[in-house]
Amino acid sequence: MMISFDEAIGLVKDHVTTLGEESISLEQAAGRVLATPLDAPRDAPVRAVAAMDGYAVLDATTEPGQPLRVIGQSAAGAGFKGSLGPGEAVRIFTGAPMPHGSDRCIMQEHAERDGETVTFTEGYGPGWHVRAAGSDFAAGSRLLSPGAQLTPRAMVAAAAADCANVCVSTQPRVAIVGTGDELMRPGTAHTRADAIPESVTYGVAAIAAEAGAMVVERTLGPDDLPALEELAGAMLDVADVVIVTGGASVGERDFAKPMFAPHGLDLVFAKVAIKPGKPVWLGRAKGKWVLGLPGNPTSAMVTARLFLRPLLARLQGQEIDQVLGWRNIPLAAPLKQTGGRETFARARLVEHGLEPLDNQESGSQAALVQADWLIRCPPNQPGGNAGQSVIALEF
């Protein structure tokens, strides 16, 4: 039975739950997904610091041309220990704590140093060049919420909060099997007539890794059912999610589903009314998730974006809406009409919006390089004109 895209995503939401959680060091956390909130344990900065190199002064007792006695210096990590009074200044560097008694940093460009005294030229205002205590974040403020992926930017925030360890969702282990006698490893396909370089598992593995999963196996399987049954069992033993590409139709050599039958395959859905990617399917075997993707490269990558990404999100405690972030974007060029299935047209983002690609073939590979968005088109859509708003997903 073929179901709609929304129905299939609804089944993913209903059936897939988080794998669990663990505490790991921040050094190991890049790309992982937070399982618990990350709240700031203290203010940042802890005390006021200089935003420029210059001199710390008390503004109320400082005037242009007035000599001030320089009583020391304050550097980042080595602040001035004493207090500053009227008629005094402290040499200060960017990021250094402001000395007690000071409230302003005058940039060194406005300073004229003469031995142990300093004077300031007219026009050193209006900036005070001080970062107040807690101006970045205050103690107790929420820096990252559960479900946030520790991207490079998020890693900066976690480290800034002085966190040595974080609680993250258990990392899904993914195994990928490409099926088909015609497939050979890149670099070797030219050695055999009728062989083609296997490309799909490389893209699928990259999507899984970007989603925070660990790819533990990536292999090829022949069009031989007993061999594939054995391979399926081995992959189910080492992974939380097994992805199989190709062999999803109903021909005599299509073994993607049968290879999991001895391992108790229980289908969640078997076909989805979308183009490309109608043969995509999801099931369970030996307590593990099995996702079947089409063998055509574009179909496989589109369905991996639409189904693998949400599956891995749910396993890591994320909401599917976090990874299916549909947006309204104008068309920069006309969009062709669609047929009876919901269609995800590949497009690239240009200056004035989305430009649908000329090549929408499911087997295309060169066009994938250009496709950075998917336009969601309802069945039997008459098409669209430049300037018209469409619903799209970053690809």
Rounded average pLDDT: 95
Radius of gyration: 30 Å
How many distinct domains?
A: 4
Name given to the CATH architecture of the largest domain: 3-Layer(aba) Sandwich
Q: Would you state the CATH class of the largest domain?
A: Alpha Beta
Major sheet details? 6 strands, mixed
CATH domain fold name of the largest domain: Molybdenum Cofactor Biosythetic Enzyme, Chain A
Q: Please give the count of helices.
A: 7
Low-confidence blocks of residues: none
Q: Tell me, what's the shape? A: elongated
State the end-to-end CA separation: 27 Å
Strand order of the largest sheet: 8-5-7-6-10-9
The total count of strands amounts to 28
Helix content: 10-25%
Q: Assign the structural class, choosing from mainly alpha, mainly beta, alpha/beta, alpha+beta, or little secondary structure.
A: alpha/beta
CATH homologous superfamily identity of the largest domain? MoaB/Mog-like domain
Strand fraction equals 25-35%
Task: Give the helix/strand layout.
Blueprint lengths: L1 E2 L1 H11 L5 E5 L12 E2 L9 E2 L3 E4 L10 E7 L13 E5 L11 E4 L3 E4 L2 E4 L9 E2 L10 E3 L7 H9 L4 E5 L3 E7 L3 E2 L11 E2 L2 H11 L3 E8 L3 H14 L2 E5 L20 E4 L1 E2 L1 E2 L5 E5 L2 E6 L3 H19 L4 H4 L3 E4 L11 E9 L2 E4 L9 H5 L2 E5 L11 E6 L1
Parallel strand pairs: 1-20, 6-7, 14-17, 14-18, 15-16, 18-23, 21-25
Antiparallel strand pairs: 2-13, 3-12, 4-11, 5-7, 5-8, 6-10, 9-10, 19-22, 22-23, 24-28, 25-26, 25-27, 27-28
